[in-house]
Amino acid sequence: MKNTKSLIFCAAIAAAIFPSCSGKENPDNPDALPDGVVIRSSASFIAAGGNESVTLTVYADGVDVTSDEGTTIFIVEDGSTSVYESTTWSSSEVCEVQFFASYNAEISERITVRAVSGAEEVPEDPDAINYDFVKNTIILQATSVGCQYCPYLISALDEYSESGATRDNAIIAAAHANMNVIDPMTSTASLAILNHYTLSLLPTAIFDLDRSISLSSEATSALINSRVNLALGTSAKCGISAVVTGTEAEGKVSVTARVKVGRAGNYRVAAWLLEDGIVANQYNSTSIPVDNIHDNAIRAISCSSPVTGEYLDGQQSWEQYTEGDFYCEFDLEEAGVDNLGNCHVVIFVTSPRTGSSTYLLDNAVDVRINESIAYQYED
To answer: Hey, is 227 helix, strand or coil?
Structure first.
């Protein structure tokens, strides 16, 4: 049985907010690297054309062994593997390659590096006269690494992500808070989102950005699926097409989106920058095992109204069968991003429900860095 009194006591986050820190992995610190052989790239993305390059470094148990005789770097290009004789890489064309290394017969995992065009045109509409949009919802995960009972929700979301019937239409975004300890994923962005809901209890999952549809430590994969089904029961009035670009050298992520309005109404839009693969020890007073690798951490938000968003294209009211544009940029240093290759952007539109002035989620998309998504329509 879950100890409700302890849960509420430990989840009083309002009294436990500490200053945030970036929590970045530091390759110069051996303790920040896993044991064994590891290859690292100075960037995940570079601009194609040959003017930008990445530097490759190989570590063995935290020690730089790039120049050692026992070290060999390999490149995987167009399905073919060969020895790579350099520690830098650039490309004149758009492409994707992988690198791995061997050191004294021990093999590292592969890393991926992409040379990208930086094109910021949204994809062409595949069906211009269609307004029957696919609906996606957002599951806002409010947790902290210092929360001993958050593993109840975290494990339920993990199970749902693997087997939930509605998982393809649910986007998980995690807003972290400092509770008992400094959470390396806590940011001004995550706190702004939590403050919007005046949350005083962790863990909490909010569906469709609607506080009335939520779960806490009682969450199971089945309950999450039922809440998502409830959220998906409201059809989408808008579709979203978007392209997300960025490189480490630029130091920013650019988001260009177009919103296709299928029904007249008032619409707002916003974007959240998320990062996966963040290593942080999760406190756990449950019997449920959880991973210490955290995904979908909200690093930055596009505007001062992080949940409702800004008016679409600066305009409050929209006629049926029209389109509006949205653009924003995220500064990587300000966002505290560790690995751009692990980042993605959630772009979403909100609108008031019938008989209400409260803006709730209408539709959302999730786009990886240097990728795009076209309008999605029901079959």
So the answer is: helix
For the record, the structure tokens of 243 come out as 């392209």
**Residue 307's closest CA among 203, 195, 222?**
195
The structure's pTM equals 0.85
Please tell me if the domain spanning 30-116 has the same topology as the one spanning 137-373. Answer: yes
Q: How far is CA 358 from CA 54, 138, 192, 198, 308, in A?
A: 47, 17, 18, 16, 9
Q: Which residues pair with 171 in a beta bridge?
A: 138
How is the chain split into domains, by residue range?
Answer: 30-116, 137-373
| Rounded (to 5) percent helix, strand, coil in the chain | 15, 40, 45
Tokens matching residue 105: 């017969």
What are the φ/ψ torsions at residue 16 (nearest 5 degrees)?
-130, 35
Protein fold of 137-373: Immunoglobulin-like (2.60.40)
| Residue 102: C-alpha distances to residues 7, 34, 38, 285 (Å) | 47, 15, 9, 39
pLDDT digits (tens, 9 = 90+) for 75-124: 999 999 999 999 999 999 999 999 999 999 999 999 999 999 877 789 99
Which CATH number is associated with domain 30-116? 2.60.40.10
224 three-state secondary structure: helix
Say which residues have a Cβ less than 8 Å from residue 308's Cβ, sequence separation at least 6.
268, 270, 350, 359
